[in-house]
Design a protein that fits this description.
By secondary structure, the chain is mostly helical. About 50% of the residues lie in helices and about 5% in strands. The chain has a three-stranded mixed sheet. Strand 1 and strand 2 form a beta hairpin. Helix 1 packs antiparallel against helix 6. It is globular.
């Protein structure tokens, strides 16, 4: 199982996200309040498609052993938070609006955020993290960080996260297909950061094979 060719395609999506954010910083710098140790985005709940999980895992494994060990310990707290969130969502099962509101408000600390409020994998962080401080379109709605200076009702360039997620899904689907599973629905399964960094890629793929 060699994901290298898929990683190159993934890095193209990363470069596109970074280019958009750089453009926003140049044109709307006064509205972007991202700075070191501002970790609001590091508390937001989101999932990774398989190809991004594999990429993050491959870069995480290159960190020094102690840094990895501390991150794995932080995974335990993140998993407890995700379990509490799962319970809340189950209680509101059948009410998509309520579930969406719960997801938007929930805050669970990312295990990649260390005790100094620094991301230990910053240069290889997920795409969602790279565009968080700028306007993005997700689930058909335009959103921006509450700490930013972007004003409701005004027009700004928007990063299409929906479109990017679609491309990540397609990459994951193709990757699964080369690994022996052609079921397109399984490529839509999302993986938490904590699970991605502590689980070998082969085990992630095997688990996805069993689900569906």
């Amino acid at each position: 199982m060699n994901p290298t060719q898929f990683f190159r395609s993934y890095e193209f999506l990363v470069d596109r996200a970074d280019a958009f954010f750089a453009k926003m910083e140049k044109g709307y710098g006064s509205c972007i309040n991202c700075k070191r140790h501002c970790s609001d985005c590091c508390q937001a709940v989101f999932g990774l498609f398989l190809i991004e999980s594999a990429y993050i895992k491959s870069r995480f494994d290159q960190l020094d052993p102690d840094t990895r060990k501390q991150a794995i310990l932080r995974c335990n707290e993140a998993d407890r938070g995700l379990k509490r969130l799962e319970t809340k969502l189950e209680i509101n099962n059948g009410d998509p609006e309520a579930q969406s509101s719960i997801m938007a408000k929930e805050r669970i600390r990312c295990p990649l955020l260390d005790d100094n409020e620094d991301c230990i994998l910053y240069t290889n962080r997920p795409i969602t993290c790279r565009v968080y401080g700028a306007p993005t379109r997700i689930h058909g709605k335009v959103r921006a960080c509450s700490r930013s200076g972007f004003k409701a009702g005004e027009r700004y360039p928007v990063f299409d996260l929906d479109g990017t997620y679609r491309e990540l899904y397609l990459l994951s689907r193709e990757f699964l297909s080369t690994a022996g599973d052609a079921d397109p629905e399984k490529a839509s399964l999302l993986i938490s950061v904590s699970k991605a960094i502590r689980t070998p890629l082969e085990e992630l793929v095997y688990e996805i094979f069993r689900r569906g």
